[in-house]
Amino acid sequence: NRSFQAWREWCLTVQNELRLRRTAEKQAALAEYAAATGSRYSMRWEVVQDMIYVGQTYYPPWRAEGLVRRALENQRPVRTFVTGSAQRGFPLPDADGAGREVFEAQAWDIIVDLDAPISTSTSASDVKPTSKPIAFGSMFQSAVGAKPVETIDSVAADAVPQERVSVSFQPLHDLVGQAWRMQKPLLCRDVGCMSASTFSRKDLALEFGIGSILFVPTPDGVVELGALRCEESEQTDSKPLVVLDQKPADLLRLDGEDLLSTIFTTTPGEEAQPLPPSIGMVSKHMSWNLMLALGTLGTLRSLDKDNPVLADPADPTSDEAKVHANEIFIVMEGTFGTFRKTISGDLVVLLKSPPGTIIGADDVWANRARSVHLRCLSGEGKVVVLPQRVVRKLELCDSPFIGPKEAEEFIEYMKREMSLNLCVMESAFSDPTEA
After folding, report:
1. How far lies 408's CA from each of 281, 343, 414, in Å?
2. What is the DSSP annotation of 62-107?
């Protein structure tokens, strides 16, 4: 119990620290970086107690729209490379590489060692010459069995020595931690050429079609941009993994986005496609990024004419009446009805809710047991289920999947929808003959 309590307190400390670091300015910067490069996502990692965690995330609107569409079509929760990355933190690599073997290479070869942290040297005299440089592709072909993008099998004896760079990695560490420890930008052009020990999120990236990633360190974290594939650039080496010469601060200047776009230019992997009319109705009530946050933190539930019951009131004669309602529902597709049972046992409709509206919230905010029947009135319907703990996360911006702007939008959305529901209920039960 004591160990569990200590672990819980440590987790709360990290969560509070990450929440305090989330700002609207950082979120706006992530949006600018994604727009300038055409990235599928942007993430800001934060260093907390010798670990690095995802602090804030951003999807461009076209990407958020596509994710929401697929989640509803497939009736599955939103899961992406970003959500998978945010489920874990990574230990930072050691500051020195004492006692670890380091592979050396010519400047055109980036060698990855699985047993040492990253290190760089800018002078040929700083490292011992090798009898035969080992090419990046050759090493991975022999060590991992992966097909290299490019292989240098030999170097002529009279070749002019070029500037050397020694690059190595500790096992189980992620490239994001290496970029922060080095305080140098890392460009991974081809995730497929990485080993799982070098880039522990490799399989996750390939699962979701992320082929190229840029890591730009800051004093207290790392900005990460990802895409299907980045285009070739005259400003960088063409190898699968490159340590960039540009200063991180220059790449992340909002008034210098041209430099960032020359380093990491991508073509969006998917364009926004026409959506079903019901989803378009939801987008009139909230932004795509807020919808995506709801789908990521909430649970998608589908109903139809054979299974129309979303929720029933608690039995007043049982212990259920003592349990407060805990879930609110946001209608994504179809039409839902709120009913109350009369003394005779008939169901009387109180409210009909189209896509984009909230239902079931009255009992939750009143801290009482469920008092109404919630039914799907259309042939098919979908709702996002939000427990109270998730609502608090959305309100407080206590998750990397919702930005400060979306948290404010969510609060305004709830107030507006609750007020409209109250107006509809009041008009439905008012006496038109009253003055």
Report:
1. 21, 42, 10
2. HHHHHHHHHHHHHT-----HHHHHTT--EEPPPS--TT------BT
Contact 154, 211 (CB under 8 A): no
What's the rounded Cα separation, in Å, for the pair 141 and 147?
A: 6
Q: Report pTM.
A: 0.74
101 neighbors 323 (Cβ within 8 angstroms): no
**C-alpha closest to that of 215 among 201, 205, 200, 225:** 225
Tell me how long the chain is: 435
> How many angstroms separate the CA atoms of 428 and 375, rounded?
19
Angle at 41 between CA 38 and CA 45, to 5 degrees: 130
DSSP state string for 186-206: EEES-GGGS-TTT-TTHHHHH
Instruction: Give just the sign of the alpha carbon dihedral 72, 22, 92, 390.
Output: negative
Q: How far is CA 419 from the centre of its chain?
A: 32
**Structure confidence at residue 87 (pLDDT):** 85
**Dihedral of CA 175/177/182/186: which sign?**
positive
Percent of the chain with pLDDT over 90: 42
Give every residue of the chain whose pLDDT is below 70, as ranges.
95-173, 232-238, 256-257, 267-281, 320-321, 428-435
Residue/partner pairs of 276-283 with CB below 8 Å, 24 or more apart: 276/72, 276/333, 278/332, 278/333, 278/334, 278/355, 279/68, 279/69, 279/72, 279/332, 279/333, 279/355, 281/354, 281/355, 281/356, 282/331, 282/332, 282/355, 282/356, 283/65
Please state, in angstroms and rounded to a whole number, the distance separating the CA atoms of residues 316 and 319: 8
Which amino acid would we find at residue 327? E
SS3 114: coil
Per the CB < 8 A criterion, the answer to whether 114 and 169 are in contact is yes
Indicate the residue type of 303.
L
CB distance 102 to 116 below 8 Å: yes
Alpha-carbon gap, residue 408 to 397, rounded angstroms:
9
Alpha carbon distance 120, 288 (integer Å): 42
Instruction: Tell me which residue of 275, 274, 363, 271 sits closest to 311, measured CA to CA.
Output: 363
- Is residue 339 within a helix (H) or strand (E), and if so which, with residue range? strand 336-341
Residue from 183, 157, 30, 162 nearest 92 by CA: 183
Q: How far apart are the first and last CA of the chain?
A: 65
